[in-house]
Amino acid sequence: MASSIKLTLALFFTCSLFLQGTLAEVVCENLPENLCSFAIASSGKRCVLENYKNEDGKLDYTCKSSEVVVERLSGYIESDQCIAACGLDRTFVGISSDAFLTQEFTTSLCSPACYQNCPNIVDLYFNLAAGEGVYLPALCQKQKTSPHRAMFELLSGAASAQAYDSMAPVPAPAPAYYY
């Protein structure tokens, strides 16, 4: 008897997830500004918050679809828990790799709470890092062992960091003897 109740509840829960997914289509232009950043439309396009001046000349915000398509997470609005765990803010305007320039952001992004639980954010910043020539998993690994080294690699580019790693002390030249 108890197992049939559990089965019924599990079936109900599963069906409710499918029903919710089919009834609630996410359209960036219909999202309020407090849900826009880090959302993905049902079409698979990332949502971005943009600012503009309204008729009164005051700064206002609108949510727009970007041209960036995400294959696996269409119709997704990022949770507040992930926003906090990853050190982000829903009022971010646009999408930029500039966040990598602060050690606090990289520490938050690479933390287990973010990196292991927030695939949408990790996917976004994985692609932004790749655009800068940085492999995010390697950056996060360096962040754990040597945060300052991770920042050096990010700021100087992967090639410079590899060259730095391969440099060995150069021995002093042998004195030249002339006869």
From TrEMBL:
Q: Which UniProt keywords apply?
A: Signal
**UniProt-listed InterPro entries:** PAR1
Q: Which Pfam families match?
A: PAR1
Q: Which residues form the signal peptide?
A: 1-24
**What name goes with this protein?**
PAR1 protein
